[in-house]
Design goal:
Keywords: Membrane, Transmembrane, Transmembrane helix
Helix content: over 70%
Number of strands: 0
Number of helices: 8
Order of helices and strands: HHHHHHHH
Distance between the termini: 45 Å
Shape: elongated
Largest sheet: none
Length: 201
Protein backbone atom coordinates (compact mmCIF):
# COMPACT_ATOMS: atom_id res chain seq x y z
CA UNK A 1 0.00 0.00 0.00
CA UNK A 2 2.95 2.35 0.60
CA UNK A 3 3.90 2.10 -3.07
CA UNK A 4 0.44 2.98 -4.33
CA UNK A 5 1.12 5.94 -6.66
CA UNK A 6 0.73 9.38 -5.19
CA UNK A 7 -1.98 10.37 -7.67
CA UNK A 8 -4.17 7.64 -6.16
CA UNK A 9 -3.60 8.97 -2.65
CA UNK A 10 -4.78 12.46 -3.52
CA UNK A 11 -8.09 11.24 -4.93
CA UNK A 12 -11.26 11.06 -2.87
CA UNK A 13 -12.24 7.73 -1.25
CA UNK A 14 -14.48 6.62 -4.12
CA UNK A 15 -11.85 7.29 -6.78
CA UNK A 16 -9.20 5.62 -4.62
CA UNK A 17 -11.35 2.51 -4.44
CA UNK A 18 -11.94 2.55 -8.19
CA UNK A 19 -8.21 2.89 -8.94
CA UNK A 20 -7.10 0.16 -6.54
CA UNK A 21 -9.97 -2.17 -7.41
CA UNK A 22 -9.56 -1.78 -11.15
CA UNK A 23 -5.82 -2.43 -10.98
CA UNK A 24 -6.22 -5.55 -8.84
CA UNK A 25 -9.22 -6.84 -10.78
CA UNK A 26 -7.52 -6.44 -14.17
CA UNK A 27 -4.37 -8.17 -12.91
CA UNK A 28 -6.21 -11.23 -11.57
CA UNK A 29 -8.54 -11.35 -14.55
CA UNK A 30 -5.54 -11.31 -16.89
CA UNK A 31 -4.06 -14.30 -15.07
CA UNK A 32 -7.31 -16.21 -15.43
CA UNK A 33 -7.62 -15.30 -19.10
CA UNK A 34 -4.06 -16.39 -19.91
CA UNK A 35 -4.28 -19.62 -17.94
CA UNK A 36 -7.72 -20.80 -19.02
CA UNK A 37 -8.51 -18.78 -22.12
CA UNK A 38 -12.01 -18.36 -20.67
CA UNK A 39 -12.93 -14.71 -20.98
CA UNK A 40 -16.26 -15.10 -19.13
CA UNK A 41 -14.35 -16.47 -16.13
CA UNK A 42 -11.94 -13.54 -16.34
CA UNK A 43 -14.88 -11.12 -16.40
CA UNK A 44 -16.32 -12.74 -13.26
CA UNK A 45 -12.97 -12.39 -11.50
CA UNK A 46 -12.81 -8.73 -12.49
CA UNK A 47 -16.33 -8.03 -11.26
CA UNK A 48 -15.87 -9.89 -7.96
CA UNK A 49 -12.29 -9.20 -6.90
CA UNK A 50 -12.17 -5.64 -8.25
CA UNK A 51 -14.77 -4.25 -5.83
CA UNK A 52 -13.42 -6.32 -2.92
CA UNK A 53 -9.88 -5.01 -3.32
CA UNK A 54 -11.15 -1.53 -4.09
CA UNK A 55 -13.19 -1.25 -0.90
CA UNK A 56 -10.43 -2.78 1.20
CA UNK A 57 -7.76 -0.53 -0.28
CA UNK A 58 -9.79 2.66 0.05
CA UNK A 59 -10.72 1.88 3.66
CA UNK A 60 -7.14 1.08 4.59
CA UNK A 61 -5.87 4.31 3.05
CA UNK A 62 -8.63 6.28 4.74
CA UNK A 63 -7.88 4.80 8.17
CA UNK A 64 -4.17 5.49 7.77
CA UNK A 65 -4.68 9.14 6.78
CA UNK A 66 -8.04 10.35 8.08
CA UNK A 67 -7.00 13.99 7.88
CA UNK A 68 -6.70 13.74 4.13
CA UNK A 69 -10.48 13.75 3.81
CA UNK A 70 -10.65 17.21 5.38
CA UNK A 71 -8.32 18.75 2.80
CA UNK A 72 -9.42 20.34 -0.43
CA UNK A 73 -8.41 18.21 -3.45
CA UNK A 74 -5.75 20.71 -4.54
CA UNK A 75 -4.25 20.86 -1.04
CA UNK A 76 -4.32 17.08 -0.74
CA UNK A 77 -2.43 16.81 -4.03
CA UNK A 78 0.17 19.33 -2.83
CA UNK A 79 0.69 17.46 0.43
CA UNK A 80 1.05 14.06 -1.22
CA UNK A 81 3.32 15.35 -3.98
CA UNK A 82 5.65 17.23 -1.63
CA UNK A 83 5.82 14.41 0.90
CA UNK A 84 6.61 11.69 -1.63
CA UNK A 85 9.20 13.86 -3.38
CA UNK A 86 10.91 14.83 -0.14
CA UNK A 87 10.24 18.53 -0.73
CA UNK A 88 8.89 21.38 1.33
CA UNK A 89 5.16 21.88 0.91
CA UNK A 90 5.86 25.63 1.05
CA UNK A 91 2.77 26.44 3.10
CA UNK A 92 2.78 26.42 6.91
CA UNK A 93 -0.95 25.76 6.83
CA UNK A 94 -0.31 22.37 5.19
CA UNK A 95 2.70 21.39 7.31
CA UNK A 96 0.60 19.36 9.81
CA UNK A 97 -0.96 17.44 6.92
CA UNK A 98 2.51 16.56 5.62
CA UNK A 99 3.46 15.20 9.03
CA UNK A 100 0.24 13.22 9.28
CA UNK A 101 0.58 11.74 5.80
CA UNK A 102 4.21 10.82 6.47
CA UNK A 103 3.11 9.07 9.64
CA UNK A 104 0.42 7.20 7.71
CA UNK A 105 2.99 5.86 5.26
CA UNK A 106 5.15 4.65 8.14
CA UNK A 107 2.22 2.92 9.79
CA UNK A 108 1.35 1.13 6.56
CA UNK A 109 5.00 0.14 6.13
CA UNK A 110 5.02 -1.42 9.60
CA UNK A 111 1.79 -3.28 8.87
CA UNK A 112 3.32 -4.69 5.69
CA UNK A 113 6.50 -5.60 7.56
CA UNK A 114 4.48 -7.57 10.12
CA UNK A 115 3.29 -9.86 7.30
CA UNK A 116 6.69 -10.05 5.62
CA UNK A 117 7.45 -13.50 7.09
CA UNK A 118 4.92 -14.96 4.65
CA UNK A 119 6.87 -13.90 1.57
CA UNK A 120 9.65 -16.54 1.70
CA UNK A 121 6.98 -19.23 2.05
CA UNK A 122 5.03 -17.78 -0.88
CA UNK A 123 8.24 -17.67 -2.93
CA UNK A 124 9.05 -21.33 -2.28
CA UNK A 125 5.51 -22.50 -3.02
CA UNK A 126 5.17 -20.41 -6.19
CA UNK A 127 8.55 -21.63 -7.49
CA UNK A 128 7.65 -25.27 -6.80
CA UNK A 129 4.32 -24.87 -8.59
CA UNK A 130 5.99 -23.19 -11.55
CA UNK A 131 8.47 -26.04 -11.93
CA UNK A 132 5.70 -28.63 -11.63
CA UNK A 133 3.50 -26.82 -14.17
CA UNK A 134 6.43 -26.55 -16.55
CA UNK A 135 7.02 -30.30 -16.39
CA UNK A 136 3.49 -31.64 -16.14
CA UNK A 137 1.06 -28.86 -16.96
CA UNK A 138 -0.11 -27.09 -20.09
CA UNK A 139 1.89 -24.18 -21.46
CA UNK A 140 -0.70 -21.59 -20.40
CA UNK A 141 -0.61 -22.74 -16.80
CA UNK A 142 3.19 -22.77 -16.75
CA UNK A 143 3.27 -19.23 -18.12
CA UNK A 144 0.99 -17.95 -15.39
CA UNK A 145 2.97 -19.77 -12.71
CA UNK A 146 6.22 -18.16 -13.85
CA UNK A 147 4.54 -14.74 -13.96
CA UNK A 148 3.58 -15.26 -10.32
CA UNK A 149 7.19 -16.17 -9.53
CA UNK A 150 8.33 -12.95 -11.22
CA UNK A 151 5.87 -10.85 -9.19
CA UNK A 152 6.99 -12.50 -5.94
CA UNK A 153 10.64 -11.89 -6.88
CA UNK A 154 9.86 -8.21 -7.46
CA UNK A 155 8.16 -8.00 -4.08
CA UNK A 156 11.21 -9.55 -2.39
CA UNK A 157 13.88 -7.50 -4.17
CA UNK A 158 12.67 -4.37 -5.95
CA UNK A 159 9.80 -3.31 -3.67
CA UNK A 160 11.82 -3.03 -0.43
CA UNK A 161 14.34 -0.79 -2.16
CA UNK A 162 11.59 1.45 -3.52
CA UNK A 163 9.91 1.63 -0.11
CA UNK A 164 13.16 2.55 1.64
CA UNK A 165 13.90 5.29 -0.88
CA UNK A 166 10.37 6.64 -0.56
CA UNK A 167 10.53 6.73 3.23
CA UNK A 168 13.90 8.50 3.06
CA UNK A 169 12.27 11.22 0.95
CA UNK A 170 9.33 11.30 3.36
CA UNK A 171 11.72 11.99 6.23
CA UNK A 172 13.18 14.95 4.32
CA UNK A 173 9.68 16.30 3.71
CA UNK A 174 8.93 16.02 7.45
CA UNK A 175 12.06 18.00 8.31
CA UNK A 176 11.09 20.65 5.77
CA UNK A 177 7.55 20.85 7.17
CA UNK A 178 8.85 21.29 10.72
CA UNK A 179 11.18 24.06 9.52
CA UNK A 180 8.35 26.14 8.08
CA UNK A 181 7.56 29.27 10.15
CA UNK A 182 4.64 28.73 12.43
CA UNK A 183 1.47 30.75 11.93
CA UNK A 184 1.15 33.92 13.93
CA UNK A 185 -1.30 34.23 16.76
CA UNK A 186 -4.62 36.08 16.45
CA UNK A 187 -3.04 39.43 17.44
CA UNK A 188 0.01 39.09 15.20
CA UNK A 189 2.28 39.07 18.28
CA UNK A 190 4.48 36.21 17.13
CA UNK A 191 4.33 32.47 16.60
CA UNK A 192 1.26 30.71 17.87
CA UNK A 193 1.61 29.93 21.57
CA UNK A 194 4.17 32.74 22.14
CA UNK A 195 1.70 35.56 22.77
CA UNK A 196 1.27 37.46 26.02
CA UNK A 197 -0.74 34.74 27.74
CA UNK A 198 1.84 32.10 26.93
CA UNK A 199 4.65 34.38 28.13
CA UNK A 200 2.79 35.11 31.32
CA UNK A 201 2.56 31.39 32.00
Amino acid sequence: MVLVPGWVWWQGPVRRGLCVGLAAGVLFAAFVAVESGAWPAAAVVLLVLGPLYGVRGARRMGRAWPGGAALAPADRARVVRATRRGESVGDARLAPAVLEYAGALRVLREEDRARWWLMPLVAVVSLALAVYDTVAGPARQALVSWLVVALVALELTWSPVRRNRLLARVARAEDAARALPREEGPHGSGPRGDGPQAQAG
